[in-house]
Write a structure and sequence with these properties.
By secondary structure, the protein is of the alpha/beta class. It is built from 7 helices and 11 strands. It folds into 2 domains: about 180 residues, Rossmann fold (3-Layer(aba) Sandwich); about 60 residues, S-adenosyl-L-methionine-dependent methyltransferases (N-terminal domain of TfIIb). Helices cover about 30% and strands about 35% of the residues. InterPro entries: Methyltransf_25 (IPR041698), SAM-dependent_MTases_sf (IPR029063). GO terms for molecular function: methyltransferase activity.
Amino acid sequence: MEAYTSFAEVYDTFMDNVPYEEWADYLEDRLKEYGIRDGLVLELGCGTGSMTELLAEKGYDMIGVDNSEDMLEIAMEKRIESGHDILYLLQNMQEFELYGTVRAIVSVCDCVNYVTDKNELQEVFCLVNNYLDPQGILIFDFNTEYKYREILGNQVIAEDRDECSFIWENYYNHTSMINEYELTLFVREDEEEALYRKYQESHFQKAYTLREIRGLIEKAGLKFVAAYDAYTKKAPMHTSERITVIAREHGK
C-alpha cells in the first residue's frame, strides 16, 4: 500500500462528497447498540482525521493509526484547532501496536481494500482481535467487486477545482481482482501567478467478496456478527458498492 503523499494536502478537497457526519452517526448508533457509549476507540487508516475528530466530538477517546506521515500532519493540525485529545500513530495496519486494549476499532473509506494480500488482511484482523477488549467491536467498510468491475472499471475520471485538479486513470484486473489507479495531480502553489505543480501517484486495492472477508475474520479468531449495505441496516445486495461489516472479539 502506497501512502498518500502529494495527494494528502488536497485529500479533503476531493473527499468533500463523503458524508462523514452521517457515517459518524451510524458508527455511534452501532457502537451504542453493542453497549459502547464511551472509552477508547481506535480508527485504522484514519487519514486526515475527519472521522477521528467526529467520533471524538461524540465523546470517545480516540486513537488514529495511518501509514502516511503527510496525512497525519493534517490530522494533527485539525487536533490543534479542535482541542480534542487524540493520539495519532504512524503505523501500517498490518503491524499496528497499541499500549493496551480498546473497546472498539473502526475503519472507513475502504481502507481494508488497500491490503491486497489475503494473509496480510487476516493478520490485520488477528491484531484487531488481540487489541480489542473482551467482547469488543470491530466495524469497517469495504468496496465490493461489483463496484470495481461495474462502476470504476477501466476508465478515466477527471475533476477540476480552482486550487487543484486531478486525473484518475482506473484499471481493474478481473483475474487478480486488483484495482489500480494512477493519480495525476495539479496543485496550485502560487495564486498570483496561477502556477500549479504536477504530482503522480499509483495506488492498488484488492476486491474481496463478503464470503472471503467473513472467512478471514473467523480465521483470525473474531466472531462475525453482521454485514449491511453500507451504512444502513439493509442486507447486502449483489449491486452493493460498499458493505459495512461488524465483528466481535471472541476470546484470545
